[in-house]
Amino acid sequence: MKDIEIAQQVEPAPITEIAAKAGLTADEIDQYGSTKAKLKLPLPVKDTKRKLILVTSINPTPAGEGKSTVTIGLGDALTKNGQNTMIALREPSLGPVMGMKGGATGGGYSQVIPMEDINLHFTGDMHALTAANNTLAALIDNHIQQGNALGIDQRRIQWKRTLDINDRALRHVVIGLGGATSGVPREDGFDITVASELMAILCLSENIADLKRRINKILIGYTHDRQPVTVADLQVGGAIALLLKEALRPNLVQTLAHTPALVHGGPFANIAHGCNSVLATQASLNLADYTVTEAGFGADLGGEKFMDINTAAVGQAPNVVVIVATIRALKMHGGMALADLGTEDIAALKAGMANLGHHVQAMQQYGVPVVVAINEFTADTAAEIQAVKDYCADLGVKAILADVWGQGGDGAVELAQTVVELADQPSEFKPLYSVEDSIEAKVQAIVTKIYGGAQVEYSTKAKRQLKTFAKQGWDKLPICMAKTQYSLSDNPKLLGVPTGFTINVSEFVPKLGAGFIVAMTGNVLTMPGLPKHPAALDMDIADDGRISGLF
After folding, report:
1. Which residues contact 220 (CB under 8 A, 6 or more apart)?
2. Is 122 a catalytic residue?
3. Looking at the DSSP assignment, which residues form a beta bridge with residue 255?
4. Model confidence over 47-84: pLDDT tens digits?
5. What are the structural domains of the chain?
């Protein structure tokens, strides 16, 4: 049975009941129909244990890892075990939904609902971000058209337009054609909405005042004498912020088992920081004893960024890190072909487990307890499962089998019990680097300690930027690495645990409003393209409004 068919069989509880279960009164939410709501600001605060569980994974493969599914199943299992629990997840982007990767609502019997709404337009947050982003772009071009009092050099505008769909044709465009009344011609480009700095700002802001402060700090470009120009200089920060006033508020939904879930914000982890909003995480910590949240892609991307960017913004480090792996994916990391993954192969599995071990050790550097969740597939054999458990035991961590796709929370009871035990253990969080370190030192720390790389090479442009950023004082910000998710290196074809590799930084992108510097590596793209057979080809809607083909 397909995920959407499973979800359509479950009658959602009224969102007012879910809110009450989370300790929210009717006055603390605004309903968006009967199954969705937005929390009102400021956030309510209760006396809770404030245990934060971070779910991350090995490097993803076409074989599937199921990180969101495990996150949701673990949340339901904690609830089943009698723990006051909430889940905090990112919102899906229409790019992967209509493209190849799929949605972000889990799978099988571990899903958040209404999955059709969440995977499509939801409460309109993505559209608000797209509109706000492109309003700023229009205001920049209008300023230049109307006399350019700030002296903006149109060749050095940093701000791009956005669209929340994969559209490779828009990566590089020319605008302003059509004569004197149609603007000043210049080169431009589109990013996918989830890569926009406004998305990062939305996910890191604490309130409206912080939202406005961050928006005003956005670097939009440079003058002809190469001085930075910000949104504050353009005097439109308030206008951009008001377009995001509703989008800033976390969205409340539920799992199939009616566990409260906050789904809010959606930055990708390969080209952005990959974590749901700080407000959603803080709201969950304020309301529930256990918050289960997820960072995008593998521990080398979303996991590292949660630790080194999000933790400071949330104000609390994770109490436990759960690393998700599947036996199928581990065998693929060990060199097995995708078509053969249903066959038992202990040798390939043992070779691929090095990728899991690398991520375990990388996360342990932060001083937080780690547990491995083996996301079960039907073809997994007893020998393969035991091999993973033995390997992890040698590393000093538990590996626990979880059948969350087939059984929901019932399939993760042991995992939930272990998480509760680990969350009570004392731990001392240690960030990977100090923000006072140089940009080069911070990048080097990530590359050597998290990726296992040998060195970093910088392009001529990147070297020039390092000097400029240091003069501007921008070098005292965290680093957000933009890198392929498929490999620890910047080459997506190098699976497993490559060694001796060099990470190539092509350029840096200052995200002053978000409060970090993006390092662009390899051939990573901020506007993806659609595959030969996009998922949209298999989707339809019946005359009665029933949706099909959405996973």
Report:
1. 136, 140, 152, 157, 158, 159, 229, 230, 231, 234
2. no
3. 112
4. 999 999 999 999 999 998 999 999 999 999 999 999 99
5. 3-11+47-121+249-423 (3.40.50.300), 125-242 (3.30.1510.10), 439-521 (3.10.410.10)
Indicate if the pLDDT at residue 549 is higher than 80.
yes
Pairing type for strands 547-548 and 540-541 reads antiparallel
Query: What is the average pLDDT score of the chain?
Result: 97
Q: What pLDDT score was predicted for residue 136? A: 98
* Lookup result for tokens 């071990």: 357
Q: What are phi and psi of 313, to 5 degrees?
A: -70, -40
Which is catalytic among the residues 405, 474, 501, 551?
405
Residue 377 bears catalytic tag: yes
Catalytic residue among 101, 156, 350, 476: 101
Q: Which of 269, 351, 416, 519 is catalytic?
A: 269
pTM of the model: 0.96
Cα gap 443→302, rounded to integer Å: 15
Specify whether 71 is catalytic: no
Q: Active site includes 67?
A: yes
Q: Are 417 and 83 in contact (CB under 8 A)?
A: no
Burial class (CB in 10 A: 0-12, 13-18, 19+), 246: middle
Check if 442 is active-site. no
End-to-end CA distance of the chain: 10
Catalytic pick among 268, 377, 516, 551: 377
Contact between 265 and 90 under an 8 Å Cβ cutoff? The reply is yes
Options 122, 268, 297, 508, the catalytic residue: 297
Kindly report, residue by residue over 248-298, the tens digit of the pLDDT. Answer: 999 999 999 999 999 999 999 999 999 999 999 999 999 999 999 999 999
Tell me, yes or no, if 46 is annotated catalytic.
no
DSSP alpha helix (H) spans, 205-258: 208-216, 231-234, 237-242
Answer yes or no: is pLDDT of 102 > 80: no
3-class SS shares of the chain: helix, strand, coil, % to 5: 40, 20, 40
Please say if 226 is a catalytic residue. no
Q: Spot the catalytic one: 69, 85, 281, 526.
A: 69
What per-residue confidence (pLDDT) applies to 78? 98
Q: Is 162 a catalytic residue?
A: no
